[in-house]
Amino acid sequence: MKEISSAIQLIPLEHYIFLSVALFCIGLMGVLFRRNTIIMLMCIELMFNSVTLLCTAFSAYHSDPAGQVFVFFIMIVAAAEVAVGLSMVVMMKRNIDSVDINLLNRLKW
Amino acid sequence: MVGLIPIINIVWLIPAFPLLGFLITGSAYKRLKHRQAGIIASAMVFFSFIASVVLYFVLRSSGQESATVTLFDWIAIYNMNIPFAFLIDHLSLTMMLIITGVGFLIHLYSIGYMSGDERVNSFFAQMNLFTFSMLLLVMGANYLVLFIGWEGVGLCSYLLIGFWFKNPMNNYAARKAFVMNRIGDLGFILGIILLFFTFKSVSFSEVFSQASAFQSGAPVITMITLLLLVGAVGKSAQIPLFTWLPDAMAGPTPVSALIHAATMVTAGVYMIARSSILYNLAPITLNVIIILGLATAILAAVIALRQNDIKKVLAYSTVSQLGYMFLALGLGAYSTAIFHLTTHAFFKALLFLGAGSVIHAMGGEQDIRKMGGLSKTMPVTYVTFFAGTLAISGIPPFSGFFSKDLILSKAFEHSVLLYIVALVGALLTCFYMFRLLYLVFFGEQRLPGHPHESPRVMTIPLVILSILAAFGGVLNIPSFLGGNSNFSNFLQSSVISKAPEEISHSTEIGLILTSLVLLSLVILLAYRTYVRKALVPAEEGKSIFFFNRLIERKFYIDEIYTEVFEKPFGFLSDFLFSKVENTVLDPAVDGIGSATSGFGTLVRRIQRGNISFYLFAMVAGILLFIIFILIV
Amino acid sequence: MIFLFYMLSAIMIISALLVVFSKNPVNSVIYLIVCFLAMAGHYILLNAQFLAVVHIIVYTGAIMVLFLFVIMLLNLNKAIIPQKSRVTRISAVITGGIFFLVLLAATRQTFEIHARYPFRGDIGLVSEVGNTLFHEFLLPFEMSSVLFISAMVGAIMFGKKDA
User: Fold this and answer.
1) Is residue B303 part of a domain?
2) Which residue range is the domain that position B585 belongs to?
3) The predicted structure's pLDDT at residue B455
4) Architecture of domain A2-108
5) What is the predicted ipTM?
6) Bond preceding residue B397 cis, omega within 30 of 0
């Protein structure tokens, strides 16, 4: 336990920044890449998580629990977003019998 | 003294009653039937009158001379603090009593006069709104509250002149009145602004207490007083802005009586009297007022000699009497001016209402050449009108005698020349009023038909007003007649008149006798001309003498205004319209519009509803944003 | 320990890429769960023990199950959704890459970070997090319940038949 708690002192903060930037960009790429709305939602979750990881990393390096509290709030927002987003997906499936984002172009009207 | 503070706070009731009446009659004007609107409106003004009387006694028993009641903070920005406050002193009380008292009688009269008009409910709503505005005007404790009332009465005047808006001439008259007033109001606003810049306040008490620090004839004070004078000239129909008032007779006769004789047009006189401390410091302005007032008095009286419309004669007579008030103001005799204002409110309202009664009886005919012999058929109107004529002519013991004679004697103190000119004006007044009286009520009936006496609701106000016109002079019996000038002393605390140079009683009595002899000669002349010879004025355009024609055409003043102001302005507008508007502005505006919509059609293609594309655009935008931050 | 970090990072990035590129949505969900588990490992490395547990319970346990549930309920694993055009896919990858580069460029311009407080190993424990949450962040915490209510109302509104 002692070993783990001091582990982060060995890993530079920059590594975490790079990691979360990479995750964020993968999520972003996924949102642009896919047409399936559910996968897009999942990619958004991925982006959320990259941010939470960054928050936690900063919190650990500053030894300030406030950063972890922010992770909670991000989780709250993510959960709410998933609830609404998935219900929208369900409705979309029911109305146009597809979850293809490109078929939603009628939103313009 | 103890009870003063709580009771004085009811002061807000006085303007609140007419406002309430306006709201009731104005909002329910479609539901009210028959005479309901008139009764409500009259009752509201009557309540105001009662409240004013109560206030008068309260103030009197308290022993205080003035009281300021602040209703709420109106404008409070940085170091500018303008409360919505009422100033109750002897001057404003006098005005309030006139407005509500005479106003009530005219409202009552209107119930009869306006019955049968399809828009009678709106009429009473507007009359109540006018009363409210006028009360604000005289009660305001600073120039800004006064200004609200000032504009409010202007609006109501416009609405009521154009009350019968189906006739385009009436609308033209209303517009003319409004525009003329606007010229004056511009000066008034500038005056208030300059006042604020000079004194850092617009409240009467602060301005007047600071004004004593200025020397007599200080340029800034002269400037302020001149600008305020411009406003007063517009509102009170003095040269050169008087032409709107005769045209304003297009409105219903009670309107002419209330607004264009008794109250609104005297607002300028009130305002100058209120600012007496400032005006005392500006001798140049006072001289300007003397010249304007005297010129107006004479010019209007001369024009009135040849007018054939019963209301036009009275309108020019109003202009002329206002000129007398201005003369008194210019002489520094502010309380005299207010006294003349009071008596004028009585007898001119009476004359207008009498004229209205005549017009009512003649079925809308206003040409005095077609009237005649009405003394038999309309006895009450005749007697009351006669009393009004005697009063305006200055025959003792009628009220006009006291006030006009006071002005004349003040003029005599100033210079003999002024006195002579003013006396000539008074004689002219006497002549045209008796001409009017003889033509309307004496001789033979010149038009077929059966004129009838007006209903009682119209004659009762006439009787009350004629009593006031006859005996209103007792308010201010001069010392040489055994009185003690109560009215002037009453106003002493509010308006600071210039120190009177006492003239001896014998001189004064001599002056009065002179004017009395001349007046009786003039009355005799009028009698010989219009009753003995039964001379009926010729049709228009038949006068041979140049001077007669000049008078009949009202000295071509309207025509001159048209040539000098209206036509060049029209040319300028035409030029701007055809050259600037059509060739430059319109294409430019149109071009902006079509360019925008063309760009819109272009950009619209991006908005296809493709969410993927939106996402790309969003990410690209964020990228550009970050890159921008990184580079800059 | 550093080895552990790199291994977890590798798992995360590979599984994240697989989430994006796998054809079957169910597979995507599974890979995302793997990614989140690796994330929980990172949390433990970062001394955020409580967060790690919550992350597993909330994300892997609730949110991802919800995803799976919806996919299976709507029978989406069979539905064939055509991929975007080749140009769009390539430009998506390029955009993601450019974004990565730009963010890295942004980090290069930052200054060196100094820890604000002396190092403590116990900030991730329940008591520490709870103290901060209920002292400093009490109002936002209460507000989040409002957010949940509105999200719930919205979800139910969308889920109604005649909506």
Assistant:
1) no
2) 561-631
3) 86
4) Orthogonal Bundle (1.10)
5) 0.88
6) yes
Any CB–CB contact under 8 A between A33 and chain C?
A: yes
How does pLDDT run across C113-162, given as a tens digit for each residue?
677 777 777 788 888 888 888 998 999 999 999 999 999 999 888 878 76
Which of B611, B613, B619, B622 to probe by mutation at the A interface, max A CB count within 10 Å? B611
With vertex at residue B242, the alpha carbon angle to CA B271 and CA B548, rounded to the nearest 5 degrees, is 145
Of B141, B162, B194, which residue sits at a domain end? Answer: B141
In a domain, B318, yes or no: no
Neighbours of A36 (CB within 10 A): 21
**Span B471-525, pLDDT tens digits:** 888 887 777 776 677 777 778 777 777 666 666 778 888 888 888 888 888 888 8
Chains that touch B (3 or more CB pairs under 8 A): A, C
Residue that is written with structure tokens 């009355």 in the block: B523
pLDDT the model gives residue C79: 62
**CB spacing of B620 vs C109 below 8 angstroms:** no
From the list B612, B619, B629, which residue is nearest C99 (CB)? Answer: B619
Asked whether the predicted pLDDT for residue A109 surpasses 60, the reply is no
Residues of chain A positioned with their CB less than 8 A from the CB of C33: none
Helices B13-27, B36-62: axis angle to 10 degrees equals 170
Q: What is the mean pLDDT of chain B?
A: 86
- Strands (DSSP E) contained in chain A are none
Residues near B521 by beta carbon (within 8 Å), at least 6 away in sequence: none
Cβ contact (<8 Å) for C81 and A36? Answer: yes
SS3 at position C124: coil
Q: Which residue has the tokens 């030894």?
A: A63
* Rounded-to-integer distance, Cα B231 and Cα B514, Å: 36
The answer to the question of residue B514 being in a domain is no
Highest mean pLDDT among B87-91, C20-24, C30-34, C111-115: C30-34
Please name the residue of chain B whose CA is at the shortest distance from the CA of residue A31.
B615
Question: Is residue B595, in this structure, part of any structural domain at all?
Answer: yes
Q: Please report the pLDDT score of residue B441 as a whole number.
A: 87
* Residue pair A29/C93 in contact by the 8 Å Cβ criterion: yes
User: Quick one: average pLDDT of B369-379?
Assistant: 83
Whether residue A106 and residue B609 make contact (CB cut-off 8 A), yes or no, is yes
**Amino acid identity of B44?**
M
**Mean pLDDT along residues B98-111:** 92
Question: Rounded to whole angstroms, what are the CA distances from B322 to B92, B189, B470?
Answer: 19, 22, 20
- Identify the bridge partners of residue B85 per DSSP, sorted by sequence position: B70
Nearest residue, CB atoms, A101 vs list B607, B608, B612: B612
User: Is it the case that residue B1 has pLDDT exceeding 70?
Assistant: no
Phi and psi at residue B34, to the nearest 5°: 50, -115
Cβ of residue B609 closer than 8 Å to a chain A Cβ: yes
Q: Which of B254, B19, B18, B250 is nearest to B114 (CA)?
A: B254
Reported as a single tens digit per residue, the pLDDT across B613-625 is: 888 889 999 999 9
Span A41-71, pLDDT tens digits: 999 999 999 999 999 998 888 888 888 999 9
Query: Measured between CA atoms, how close is C133 to chain B, in angstroms?
Result: 32
CB A17 within 8 A of CB C107: yes
Q: In the prediction, which pLDDT does B191 show?
A: 93
Query: Is the Cβ–Cβ distance between B322 and B429 less than 8 Å?
Result: no
In this complex, the chains that touch C, judged by 3 or more CB pairs closer than 8 A, are: A, B
Of A46, A82, A100, the CB nearest to C66: A82
Provide the residue type at A78 as one letter: A
Boundary-marking domain end, from B141, B175, B203: B141
Chain B residues near any Cβ of chain C (below 8 Å): 612, 616, 619-620, 623, 626-627, 629-630
What is residue B474's DSSP assignment? G
Strand-pair category, B80-89 with B66-77: antiparallel
Residue of B nearest to C106 (CA): B630
A103 touches chain C (CB under 8 A): no
